[in-house]
Structure prediction request, 223 residues.
Amino acid sequence: DVKVTQSSRYLVKRTGEKVFLECVQDMDHENMFWYRQDPGLGLRLIYFSYDVKMKEKGDIPEGYSVSREKKERFSLILESASTNQTSMYLCASSPTQFSEAFFGQGTRLTVV
Amino acid sequence: GEDVEQSLFLSVREGDSSVINCTYTDSSSTYLYWYKQEPGAGLQLLTYIFSNMDMKQDQRLTVLLNKKDKHLSLRIADTQTGDSAIYFCAESIGGYQKVTFGTGTKLQVIP
Prediction:
């Protein structure tokens, strides 16, 4: 079974803190994604990566950056957390461009 | 534009059929997906349909695609309490990097 693991289920951070959300997949997938999920807005793509050290902006990259130093790991970084970044963050991976994505269980981040 | 719209909530009785609807605006979409999200979990792919198909059936699930109206639906036959979840439709245009998700429909199954 494909497994996508996010390092934390729940996080509470203070405004202005630097926050790292980690995601690891164990199936050698090329593509990895970070989404945020908000009620009434569905999933919105923040960043994706199609190879090690490669990244592309999604629909809402402002306030975020990413890192993919190894194929299995994709990190989302909030340089200076703000309250409007309180949300559910979902990581996903997929083996090819057109195949289904496999999602992690999500990290619920609260910025106070 | 790429907007995928769904109603936010649907309530059905156990044993009835559920129909979850989705409209999209981009006629060049290639794949359309249905994902299920159970409470406290990530999304899991239920089924998908190619844009050149009209219908796909998989056990209790039936997907109907009306390209003329840009309308996608998911029918769940004999709905069970375990089907209670949020259902997302999604469309991709030219590859998975360009997937747009709908707002999600919360399905509540009443025993």
In short: Chain B has a mean pLDDT of 90. DSSP finds no helices and eleven strands in chain B.
